[in-house]
Structures are given as structure tokens and as C-alpha cells.
Specification:
With 346 residues, the chain is of the alpha+beta class. It has helices at 18-25, 31-39, 83-91, 121-124, 156-167, 253-260, 269-272, 321-329, and strands spanning 5-8, 16-17, 44-45, 48-49, 55-56, 61-64, 93-96, 100-105, 137-138, 147-153, 171-180, 187-190, 193-196, 208-211, 227-235, 239-246, 297-305, 312-316. It has 3 domains: 5-72, Structural Genomics Hypothetical 15.5 Kd Protein In mrcA-pckA Intergenic Region, Chain A; 83-170, 2-Layer Sandwich (Pseudouridine synthase), CATH 3.30.2350.10; 173-345, Pseudouridine synthase, CATH 3.30.2350.10. Helices cover 18% and strands 25% of the residues. Strands 7, 8, 9, 10, 11, 12, 15, 16, 17 and 18 form a 10-stranded mixed beta sheet that branches. Strands 1-6-3-4 form a 4-stranded antiparallel beta sheet, with no helix packed on it. It is globular, with a radius of gyration of 22 Å.
């Protein structure tokens, strides 16, 4: 058992969550123990109590309580990635330079472990080292069943810069979705707040419920959420091709917002099961026929300032097979719509 330590946060670690910083410094300490030490006030930053989610800043002094010796914890099994998984995850790369890497994440592949997920992007990232010694780091998330652009940092310093860009909303993310029915008006803003449903867990298992904008500030646990939407095309009143911008980045925001206005995303059993009536046209989240029951939500594009060159980085990902088949069924073509239908409004 070690004694109390005081560790100074280095510049490369600035703007990182305390629990992630702690796990990197002391990998033998479990996440649950870190959270418990924070709750008990044993871990402190500049003398003050903190949460596991608190972000550390260069020069801060972190008090580390006595910890068990590393050899007292069984070492985790080495991460072995099959040749097939290595080939798969490398085939997802749509952009790479010395500082950042972008994937077209497949639908059905989780970004991180948890809730029984053993195969995920984070666990496969060793196969994405290429010519660097360290593996790329996650700087944002996509739901397991959402496909599309996923940006990763190839160094710790770049990860801090990109994480700050996402948190301060210095990015522009456009999602494509197929939804039941056709929203009216065809362009608008959804401002329902979001909060976890009672008993909701973590990750894909949890569910968010919407709160009227006027009730958000007086509803415990509710957070403001804003989504911009535009109808790009439609198949009569049956289905619409949507462009969606999550102005805020809440869990399941796009899925919950579209279901709340009566137009759930196709294939979204969590927020718009087949039994749910769609306001005005009677469609649920499953269209039947040859239309896939998989979630029709795709992170189509991402614009962000490059963390090193400062140039505008514009990344675009082609749709997954099940969405492309739906687009072919309704004769929707990407060449027929603007890449950013919201630009003329700014």
C-alpha cells in the first residue's frame, strides 16, 4: 500500500476527465474505486472535492490517497485482436494523417465496452496505430447502431484539443436519417429537454424522455437539448429523408427528439416501436416489406478545425448497406440534395 501522493497535471493531460487521467496514471485501480474515493473526498484537486467527471487542467495538484500496490491486482489479459477484426477496423478508415484518424463506424459496432459489449472500437484501436507507438484515442461517441464519421486522436495532446472542440461545440455534425412520416414544417428546430427515464442504466440500455422546454429548468435531472432538422426528400407521406444537426450532444438526442414530434427514426425500437402511432399518418418505426429493421441513422459529415494545421477538416462517410438499400427503394440520391441544407439560413 502506497502513501499519500501529490501529482501535478501535465500540459498533455489538460482538459481530460479526472477518472480517465487517474486510470492512465494508476491502471491497476478500478473505475468503481476511483468513483468511491471521489465521493469520500479522498481524491482532491487543488485541495477541493471533485467528481470523477471533473476535468483536470495543467498545473493542478491532485491528491492521491494510499493505493494498493499494482501487483495486488491481477493483470488484465492482453488485448488480442483477430486478423479478421484488424482487417475490418482498418477498412473503416476514411481519413488519416499524423495527428487524427477518422472511421466510418459500422452500424452494430459499439464505440466502447460496457453493458455486455466485448467487441468495440476502443478495444480494436490497437490495430489503428499504423506508424505510431500509441493507439488512437476516442474524442466523441456514436450509439452502437448509428453508423458514420467517428473521429479519433492519434496523440494525447491532440485528444485534449479535439475533446475541447466537441465540448465547446466548435464542430458541425450533420446526420442523415429516414423517419416515419414527413415532419411539418419541413425545416425547424426541436428544443425539448432530455432526462434519463426512471431506472435507466448506462450506455445503449438507458432511455431518455423528453421534457417541454418551459419545464426543463424546474425539472430535476433534465438538460436542455436542441436539434435542427430539414426534410431533404420524402416518399409520399410514408417516410422522409432527414438532415439533422445535434446543436447539443445529449445521449440519444436525435432519436428521442424525432420520436417526440411523432416521426421516429426507422428501425428505432427503443423510441418508436412498430406499435407506436405516428401522428397524422399512422406509421410506426418499421415500414415492413424490404425495408430493413435496423436503425436508419448515419453520421454523414463532420467539419472541425484541424487541431494542428488549423485548416478546416471536412469528413464525409458513405451510408451503410441497409440504409443505402432503403435509399434505393425510395429512389433517393445524394447528388440531388445539398451536403449542408442549413447553410443558406446562416
Amino acid at each position: 500500500m502506497s502513501g499519500v501522493q501529490i501529482v501535478t497535471v501535465e500540459e498533455a493531460d489538460t482538459d481530460q476527465r479526472l477518472d480517465r487521467w487517474f486510470r492512465r496514471m494508476f491502471p491497476h485501480v478500478a473505475q468503481g474505486r476511483i468513483e468511491k474515493m471521489c465521493r469520500k473526498g479522498e481524491i482532491r484537486v487543488d485541495g477541493g472535492r471533485v467528481k470523477a467527471s471533473t476535468r483536470v487542467v495543467t498545473g493542478q495538484q491532485v491528491r492521491i490517497p494510499p493505493l494498493p500496490d499494482a501487483q495486488h491486482r491481477q493483470a488484465p489479459a492482453p488485448n488480442r485482436i483477430s486478423d479478421a477484426d484488424s482487417k475490418m477496423i482498418r477498412s473503416c478508415v476514411i481519413y488519416r494523417d499524423d495527428h487524427v484518424l477518422a472511421l466510418n463506424k459500422p452500424s452494430g459496432l459499439a464505440v466502447q465496452g460496457g453493458s455486455g459489449q466485448t467487441r468495440h472500437v476502443d478495444g480494436l484501436s490497437d490495430a489503428l496505430r499504423f506508424d505510431l507507438d500509441e493507439k488512437p484515442r476516442l474524442v466523441h461517441r456514436l450509439d452502437k447502431d448509428t453508423s458514420g464519421v467517428l473521429l479519433m486522436a492519434r496523440t494525447r495532446a491532440v485528444a485534449a484539443t479535439l475533446t475541447a472542440s466537441f465540448r465547446h461545440r466548435e464542430t458541425r455534425k450533420i446526420y442523415w436519417a429516414a423517419v416515419a412520416g414527413v415532419p411539418h414544417p419541413k425545416m425547424g428546430i426541436i428544443k425539448y429537454g432530455l432526462m434519463k427515464a426512471m431506472g435507466g442504466g448506462r450506455g445503449e440500455g438507458e432511455k431518455m424522455i423528453c421534457v417541454h422546454p418551459r419545464e426543463v429548468d424546474r425539472t430535476d435531472g433534465a438538460k436542455r437539448a436542441t436539434t435542427e432538422y430539414a426534410v431533404l426528400s420524402s416518399a409520399a407521406k410514408r417516410c422522409a429523408w432527414m438532415a439533422l444537426i445535434p446543436v447539443t450532444g445529449r445521449t440519444h438526442q436525435l432519436r428521442a427528439h424525432m420520436a417526440e414530434i411523432g416521426h421516429p427514426i426507422i428501425g428505432d425500437g427503443k423510441y418508436g416501436g412498430s406499435g407506436q402511432d405516428n401522428l397524422g399518418d399512422g406509421w410506426g418505426a418499421h415500414l415492413g416489406g424490404d425495408i430493413s429493421k435496423k436503425l436508419h441513422l448515419h453520421a454523414r459529415s463532420l467539419r472541425i478545425q484541424h487541431p494542428v494545421t488549423q485548416a478546416q477538416l471536412h469528413l464525409t462517410a458513405p451510408m451503410s448497406d441497409h440504409m443505402r438499400n432503403t435509399w434505393d427503394t425510395f429512389q433517393w440520391a445524394a447528388s440531388d440534395v445539398p451536403e449542408d441544407p442549413f447553410e443558406d439560413l446562416e
